[in-house]
Write a structure and sequence with these properties.
This protein is of the alpha+beta class and about 725 residues long. It folds into 5 domains: about 190 residues, Hypothetical protein af1432; about 140 residues, Beta Polymerase, domain 2; about 80 residues, no CATH class; about 100 residues, no CATH class; about 80 residues, 2-Layer Sandwich (Alpha-Beta Plaits). Helices cover about 50% and strands about 15% of the residues. It contains 31 helices and 20 strands. Strands 1-2-5-4-3 form a 5-stranded mixed β-sheet. A hairpin with a 5-residue loop joins strand 4 and strand 5. The structure holds manganese (II) ion. The site of manganese (II) ion has 4 residues, from loops.
C-alpha cells in the first residue's frame, strides 16, 4: 500500500506549494473512517481511495481534488458527514465529496427506472464542479483495474456501463489514456476470448517487429537531427480494443506493423512540427489519403496533432503523429492537462483563456441543463452533447431505452424484450405509423406493434439491425424457425413411410431409439430427416430392428422383395428426402436453361454476379471479380445481366472457396475448422498442400449464407495467431 509520505511526494513533484498538512489530515481521516472495512479482494478498503488519489496525481490535479479522492467514499460508506468534512476540510472539498456521493447513490439506483432523472442528477453533479467528474473517472478506473475480485454477474454489468458511459465520457473530455484503459479493461471482461486472440496476435507481431521498431525510431531521429531538429521519437503500441473495433468495422485482419504500432514525433514548437512533416514527406513516399492536420483545425475536444503515413524503412507503412509536448499532454490528459483549477490561476479572464474546448462543452451542457424544465426536454438537448454516439427513446409507458446512434425500431424492439422483437410487425413513432427500419431520433416515443401470428422474424432483419443484441436474437430465432420447418418436413416424411409400411409410429417409441440414431431428441431426428441427413428408413430400422428397407428401383441395384408389411408404392423415390439440385435464386433468367455456379469458387449473395451462357449446357454464375471471366471477354453475346433474388425467409447456403495459410502446429487445422464451425459455416471440402516446413496452405470449400457471413468467417480466421493469411478464391 502506498504510504502517506509517498502520496505527498507525488503531489509535491508537480506542485511545490502543496498544502502537506491538508493532505496528511485527509489521509488519516479517510483511513480511520474506513477502519477495518475491506474490499472484495480482501485488501483494506482504504487502499481504494488511496489508489484513486494516486491516479489523479498522474493527472497533476490540485490539492482539493486529491483530498476529495481520498474522501470520496466516506459519506456514503462510513460515519462521516458532509458537515464534518466541511468543518475539517472546508466547504470546497465538502461540496466535491458530496457531489461524488450523489454519483455513487445514482449508480445504486435501479437502471431500468427513471433514467432521465438519473442522467440529470449525474450532470447536475458535474455542474457543481468538473473535478467531481475527474475523481469519478479515476474511481471507475481503479474499480475496473480490480474488477477480477467482483462476482461474475456484476462484473459484466460494470464493464458494460464503463464501455457505454465512462469511456466515451473520458474521450469526450479529451482524456485518451483514461479512455483507452477503460475500454481495454471492459473489453477483457466482456469478451475474454476476443481479447485473448487480439493480445496473442499483438504480442506475436510486436515480437516479430522488435528490431524494426528501434530501427524506425533511430532513422527518424537521425533524419531530424541532420536538419537541425531535436525531436523525441517513440513507437507506441495500439490498444487491443481499438484494434478489435477496427477489425469489426472494416472486416480486416491485422498483419502489418502499422496495424499495431504508431510512431509519435514530439517537437519543441509548432513550427518544427511542420518542418518535421516536410522532412518526412520528402524522405519517404507518402501513403495518399492519410494526411490530416489537426493542428490548424483542432478536434472538438481540443486535440491537436498532424497525422500522416509513409512507406518507411523496411518498406513498412509507418503511421506518424507529429505534435508539440503541450499538444501531446492535451491529447493524453485532455481537460485535466489544462489544470484550470490549479490554485495559482490569476484572474477569471486568465482562467477562461485556459479553458479548453472540452470544458466549453461541459459549460454549454450545464447551461442548457439549467434552462430546461422537464426530464424529456432535458434529454432532448443534453444527451446530444454528452452521449453523442447514442440515441435515447421512450416506450409508451415512459421507459427510457438507450441505443447506439443509427439504431432503428428493430433494435428498439429487441432492446425492450426478445419476444417483442420476434413478434414485431409494425410500429408507431410519436403516434405515427412508420417502417420498422426507421432510424430513431433522440426523444422518439416508439410503440412496437406485435402479432402472435409471427413466430420468427424475417432473416433479412439481421442485416437491418445494428445492435449485437438484436442481431443475435434474430439469428437465433430464424435458426430455430428453420429447424422447426425441417422438423415439420421430416415428420411428414417419417409419418408417410410408417403409414405406407403399416408400422406403428409413436414419439415415445422413437425416444427409446434415440441412442441408436445418435440424436438428442425426437425433434432433432425429424429435423435431420428433413435436411436429408438421415433417411426415414433409418428411423424405422432404429425403432423396429427387423425392418427391411424398401429398395428403390432407381439405384438399379438388385431388387429385393418389399417387406411383407409394406405395400409397394409407385412413388417410392418421393419417400426418400432428396437433396436434389437446388434452385439457384437468381433473377434475370428467362431462358429455362439449367443454371449452376462457377466451379472453383462459387458465388454468394452480396457478390455482384454475371451469367455466362454455354450453348448446350446452360448458364454459369460467376462473381464479377472472378478471373475466369477474362476468357469470355471477346464474346459479349454470352454475358447475361443477372441479379440475386434470395428468399429472405428461408436462408439457403451457397458455395464459396477460401485459401488459408497457417502455421504448422499441432491442432492448427482443428482450430481453423472450429472457427468455421463456430461461425455457422459448413465445410464441404478441405484440401491441403504443404508449402514449406513452417506453413500449410489449405483450400477450403465452404457453404455460407452470404457475403457478410463469409467475410465474418474470414475475419475471425485472420484474428487467429496460427493463421498467417486468408484469401477468398474466385475460380
Ligand atoms: Mn469508490
Amino acid at each position: 500500500m502506498m504510504r502517506q509520505y509517498d502520496l505527498v511526494e507525488r503531489v509535491r513533484s508537480y506542485n511545490p506549494d502543496t498544502n502537506e498538512d491538508l493532505l496528511n489530515r485527509a489521509y488519516v481521516y479517510a483511513m480511520k473512517a474506513h477502519g477495518s472495512q475491506t474490499r472484495a479482494s480482501g485488501d483494506p478498503y482504504f487502499t481504494h481511495p488511496l489508489e484513486v488519489a494516486a491516479i489523479l496525481t498522474d493527472l497533476k490535479l490540485d490539492d482539493a481534488t486529491i483530498v476529495a479522492a481520498l474522501l470520496h467514499d466516506t459519506i456514503e460508506d462510513t460515519e462521516a458527514t458532509r458537515a464534518e468534512i466541511d468543518r475539517f476540510f472546508g466547504p470546497e472539498i465538502g461540496a466535491l465529496v458530496e457531489g461524488l456521493t450523489k454519483l455513487k447513490r445514482l449508480e445504486l439506483v435501479s437502471r431500468e427506472a427513471k433514467q432521465a432523472e438519473n442522467l440529470r442528477k449525474l450532470l447536475l453533479a458535474i455542474a457543481d464542479d468538473v473535478r467531481v467528474l475527474l475523481v469519478k473517472l479515476a474511481d471507475r478506473l481503479h474499480n475496473m483495474r480490480t474488477l477480477e475480485f467482483v462476482p461474475e454477474a456484476s462484473r459484466r454489468r460494470i464493464a458494460e456501463e464503463t464501455l457505454d458511459i465512462y469511456a466515451p465520457l473520458a474521450g469526450r473530455m479529451g482524456m485518451q489514456e483514461m479512455r483507452e484503459e477503460l475500454e481495454d479493461l471492459s473489453f477483457r471482461t466482456l469478451d475474454p476470448q476476443a481479447y485473448g486472440v487480439v493480445m496473442q496476435r499483438l504480442d506475436a507481431l510486436a515480437d516479430r517487429n522488435r528490431n524494426l521498431i528501434g530501427e524506425i525510431e533511430s532513422q527518424l531521429s537521425r533524419k531530424f537531427r541532420d536538419h537541425g531538429l531535436t525531436a523525441r521519437v517513440f513507437g507506441r503500441r495500439k490498444r487491443p480494443f481499438s484494434i478489435w473495433t477496427k477489425m469489426e468495422r472494416k472486416s480486416i485482419g491485422f498483419e502489418q506493423l502499422s496495424d499495431i504500432f504508431g510512431f509519435r514525433v514530439i517537437m519543441p514548437d509548432l513550427e518544427s512540427c511542420y518542418r518535421a512533416l516536410g522532412i518526412v514527406h520528402t524522405t519517404w513516399p507518402v501513403v495518399p489519403g492519410r494526411f490530416k492536420d489537426y493542428i490548424s483545425t483542432p478536434k472538438q475536444n481540443d486535440y491537436r496533432s498532424i497525422h500522416t503515413t509513409v512507406i518507411g524503412p523496411g518498406k513498412q507503412r509507418v503511421e506518424l503523429q507529429i505534435r508539440t509536448e503541450d499538444m501531446d499532454q492535451i491529447a493524453e490528459l485532455g481537460i485535466a492537462a489544462h489544470a484550470f483549477y490549479k490554485d495559482d490561476v490569476a484572474s477569471p479572464t486568465e482562467r477562461l483563456k485556459r479553458e479548453s474546448n472540452a470544458f466549453a462543452w461541459l459549460r454549454h451542457t450545464i447551461g442548457i441543463l439549467s434552462e430546461s424544465a422537464n426530464p424529456e426536454e432535458f434529454l432532448e438537448h443534453t444527451k446530444l452533447e454528452l452521449f453523442h454516439d447514442q440515441v435515447f427513446c421512450f416506450t409508451p409507458k415512459g421507459k427510457l431505452i438507450a441505443l447506439p446512434r443509427h439504431a432503428n425500431v428493430i433494435d428498439f424492439a429487441y432492446a425492450v424484450h426478445t419476444d417483442v422483437g420476434n413478434s414485431a410487425v409494425g410500429c408507431k413513432i410519436n403516434g405515427k405509423f412508420a417502417a420498422l427500419s426507421s432510424e430513431l431520433q433522440n426523444g422518439d416515443e416508439v410503440e412496437v406493434l406485435t402479432s402472435d401470428a409471427q413466430s420468427a422474424p424475417p432473416s433479412a432483419w439481421e442485416t437491418l439491425a445494428i445492435t449485437g443484441k438484436a442481431r443475435a436474437a434474430i439469428r437465433r430465432a430464424t435458426r430455430t424457425a428453420v429447424r422447426d420447418q425441417y422438423a415439420g418436413l421430416g415428420r411428414r416424411i417419417v409419418e408417410r413411410l410408417f403409414e405406407r409400411t403399416k408400422l406403428e409410429y409413436a414419439d415415445d417409441k422413437l425416444k427409446g431409439a434415440l441412442p441408436r440414431l445418435a440424436r438428442a431428441s425426437v425433434e432433432d431426428v425429424m429435423a435431420a430427416v428433413g435436411r436429408g441427413e438421415i433417411k426415414a428408413s433409418d428411423v424405422a430400422r432404429a425403432m423396429y430392428p427387423d425392418y427391411k428397407e424398401e429398395r428403390v428401383v432407381r439405384y438399379g441395384a438388385k431388387k429385393t422383395a418389399a417387406p411383407a408389411t409394406a405395400a409397394k408404392s409407385p412413388t417410392t423415390p418421393a419417400t426418400e428426402p432428396h437433396r436434389g439440385p437446388f434452385a439457384i435464386p437468381i433473377s434475370g433468367l428467362n431462358s429455362g436453361l439449367p443454371v449452376k455456379f462457377a466451379p472453383n469458387g462459387g458465388a454468394v449473395p452480396g457478390d455482384r454476379i454475371v451469367g455466362i451462357v454455354t450453348p448446350g449446357e446452360g448458364i454459369t454464375i460467376y462473381p464479377i471479380q472472378s478471373p475466369a471471366l477474362k476468357d469470355f471477354e471477346d464474346e459479349p453475346e454470352r454475358w447475361l445481366d443477372v441479379r440475386w433474388d434470395v428468399d429472405e425467409t428461408s436462408p439457403q447456403r451457397f458455395p464459396a472457396r477460401i485459401r488459408v495459410e497457417n502455421v504448422n502446429e499441432p491442432g492448427s487445422l482443428a482450430q481453423v475448422a472450429t472457427v468455421i464451425a463456430e461461425h455457422d459455416g459448413n465445410i464441404d471440402n478441405i484440401s491441403m498442400s504443404r508449402r514449406s516446413p513452417d506453413f500449410t496452405e489449405l483450400t477450403i470449400d465452404l457453404e455460407v449464407y452470404d457475403l457478410k457471413h463469409l467475410s465474418a468467417i474470414i475475419n475471425q480466421l485472420r484474428a487467429k495467431t496460427i493463421v498467417a493469411r486468408v484469401d477468398r478464391v474466385n475460380g
